[in-house]
Amino acid sequence: MSKIRKRRVLPCIQNTVCADLIRGAKDKQLKVKGPVRIPTKVLKITTRKSLCGEGTNTFDRFELRVHKRFIDLFSSPDVLKQITSITIELGVEVEVTIADS
């Protein structure tokens, strides 16, 4: 039997990462907008438990919830690189997009 591995990222961990980013930006007196919560995306997969197709119809249901936040920081790319160099918890992904304004 294979072991079942569960990895759970709690929303409070995401909130602490957002708070760390905002705190770093406010320490440098930058203009900050956010965090803005994006609606949770729920991905569901339903599969048959029985491999051969015989027997009772039993199913496994798997679900992945994707929580997103975005923060607008108004700064130069060099300062932004310093702010985003914080340590980030396992399972939390941070994507940085630099837009010319």
UniProtKB/TrEMBL annotation:
<dbReference type="InterPro" id="IPR027486">
    <property type="entry name" value="Ribosomal_uS10_dom"/>
</dbReference>
<dbReference type="InterPro" id="IPR005729">
    <property type="entry name" value="Ribosomal_uS10_euk/arc"/>
</dbReference>
<dbReference type="Pfam" id="PF00338">
    <property type="entry name" value="Ribosomal_S10"/>
</dbReference>
<keyword id="KW-0687">Ribonucleoprotein</keyword>
<dbReference type="GO" id="GO:0006412">
    <property type="term" value="P:translation"/>
</dbReference>
<dbReference type="GO" id="GO:0003735">
    <property type="term" value="F:structural constituent of ribosome"/>
</dbReference>
<dbReference type="GO" id="GO:0005829">
    <property type="term" value="C:cytosol"/>
</dbReference>
<dbReference type="InterPro" id="IPR036838">
    <property type="entry name" value="Ribosomal_uS10_dom_sf"/>
</dbReference>
<dbReference type="InterPro" id="IPR001848">
    <property type="entry name" value="Ribosomal_uS10"/>
</dbReference>
<dbReference type="GO" id="GO:0015935">
    <property type="term" value="C:small ribosomal subunit"/>
</dbReference>
<comment type="subunit">
    <text>Component of the 40S small ribosomal subunit.</text>
</comment>
<keyword id="KW-0689">Ribosomal protein</keyword>
<comment type="similarity">
    <text>Belongs to the universal ribosomal protein uS10 family.</text>
</comment>
<feature type="domain" description="Small ribosomal subunit protein uS10">
    <location>
        <begin position="3"/>
        <end position="97"/>
    </location>
</feature>
<comment type="function">
    <text>Component of the small ribosomal subunit. The ribosome is a large ribonucleoprotein complex responsible for the synthesis of proteins in the cell.</text>
</comment>
<protein>
    <recommendedName>
        <fullName>Small ribosomal subunit protein uS10</fullName>
    </recommendedName>
</protein>
<keyword id="KW-0963">Cytoplasm</keyword>
